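Justification of computing resources. Each target in the renewal requires a structure prediction run like the one illustrated here; the chain below, 295 residues long, is used simply to show the kind of job we budget for.
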Amino acid sequence: QNTTASDQDLVEALGKELTIPDSNILHDQSLWKKVIQPSSLDLRVGNQAWRMEGSIRPLQNETVEYLAHGHSIKEYDLDEDGAEFLRDRTYIVALQETVNNLPLGAQIRSNPHRSTGRLDSLARLLADGNQQYESLHGHYVGRLYLEIAPNSFDLILRRGDSLNQIRYSVGNPAMPDQEIRSVLRVKPLIYTKEGFPIAAELVKVDNGIVLSVDLNGEHTNSSIVAYRAKQDCLLPVDFQGVGKHKLEKYFDAIEKPKNKELKLESGYFYLLSTNEAVSIPPSFAVELSQFDSRA
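Resulting structure tokens:
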């Protein structure tokens, strides 16, 4: 069986395969809807954090905490006031959630939240004795950690902040391109920004569905087609300060290029919009693949 857990499956897994610190969430749907999405679970930052000399990955018999103590520059206690995570630095944070029993054949995959990605911050899952970032295969019992590396802005983080989410799967639920094309012929997944479905034969499928960048500003109702993070920005981003930050303090607006070409300069972080809109039925789950600049 190849499947990814739904929100209800995740509720049932909590307390068995996974443990969260506040068990009241399981008994109140209004609470668990805040941390459990249709096919993913938000992981939350705990109290322990370390500023590191650089990135680490444990060997088979090593724990992340052992490496953190051995290669850290400074240790933090993330209380209500939080701590400032400086850009171009690497940190390890212990997460509140733990794994009770990830069975053989099951796996956990991690992705950064949209808010984490928009802030140009790296947030990668780590686990004891696991030599891979972002994925964890059964059998596993133990703690979970996050490697955080802000790139464009300093971040203020506190206990309880959520920078990543995990999906719980059994087998290999990833769909090959041929199966994706078959689904597109039956059920539209890709739409125009006006809400019209795009025919299956017009959707590019190459190791997943490929989306395109809007450089004409057709769907933004503005001459602005992109935003570029300011270099050497001195203002930190408070992760809990939603709606309190002024866009122009952190990003420069880029207007529609006259020749329909946008040069992405090395060392800068960009935010762009797609030409397409995506609508995913309840029976499917998707994740956004990282852009490969080598392509």
